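Side project, low priority. Logging it here so it doesn't get lost.
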Amino acid sequence: MPSFFLPAFVAGAFVLVLVARLLRGRFFARFIGVIFTITLLITWPLADRLGPVEPIVSWVAAASLVHFGSLIRAKMRPVWVRVLINWPASWGIAGVFLALPWAITDAFGYDLPGLWVPFALAAAGVAESLWPRRRTVDVVLDGEDVGDTSRPWRSPAPPETRPLRIVQITDPHLGPFMSADRLHGISQRAVAAEPDIVLLTGDYMTMESHHDVEGLSHGLAPLAALPGRVFACRGNHDLESPETVDIAMERIGATLLNDDAAVVETPVGPVQIVGHDFAWRDRAERMAATNAAHPRVGDALRLVLLHDPGAFAHLDPDDADLVFSGHTHGGQLGLVSLGLQWTVLRALSRIPDHGLHARGRARLFVHRGTGHYGFPVRIGVPPEEPVLRVFDRRG
């Protein structure tokens, strides 16, 4: 990195953190302060190895300052800003974080070859974050009790009967990687799949879109073509601007279930849908109270909307036949693109992060999400647009 630029970047980051503290608050200032500190600690020992790519690094570093500076004012940005600022900044930050092993070895006097590798992976992650995988998932509810511990589960082969067709949309995170028009296209494809039910399981926004009612309404607008068939719950990020979600859901005619339930008639019979609002604390008690207030309705299939799959462990398995979650973005970093199930999240925790899981007689589907939020890009865990075919064989 040019000698004049590194001090300028440090000074710019320092000023930006101060301005963010004054205009956006302590949490946001702390957040970008941590990001910039980690980025500098990794970049500094590698600066003398950048050589001919120094101009690109300088541009990406400047883009990062502009990117985080723009977040001080919550507003969706036009496409040229996303392409020239947001995506390069996300690529650069992801590449720097992945270059940590190179920085560590350099600090001990060794030049680990292949410094291009983490940045190539980050570039692939940018592309992957914009390319959802469409697939059909068969879920046969066989009523088998698999025990008290949640575990990955493989569905039995589907029978030759008419299934309940469900489209789930979760974690679009309107922002740099998810424009309102892109979400509109996802919603159009959901309608084109001719589902019996559409389930929206939260985290519709990012910092940019907190107050963008028009953007979220436009993104979900095609779902208005399915009156009485769209049901939603809120995720953790929706609690940062709940009125935006309330208005958008009302405009498209979706039923927002905040610790509430509804029954819908479908071609395969009645289906009861229970929506649990997101909660940071006392989740088990809140979920138990909601289920007690809305007990099973006859023999109706009981679907549960639960944004965070980590709360599946707190759910009485008898209170759900099939649970729909998101939140984890599929683990976000992993080897799913290669056909493997390993992710960083799965390696570090017991939280179900993608695919089908089982506990007791209840089954859980964790959607990998259509967008992302947190680590700058997805790597090895692509977004998805699944259509679920649910076969009820509980007997």
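Brief comment: The longest strand covers residues 133-141.
Revisit when time allows.
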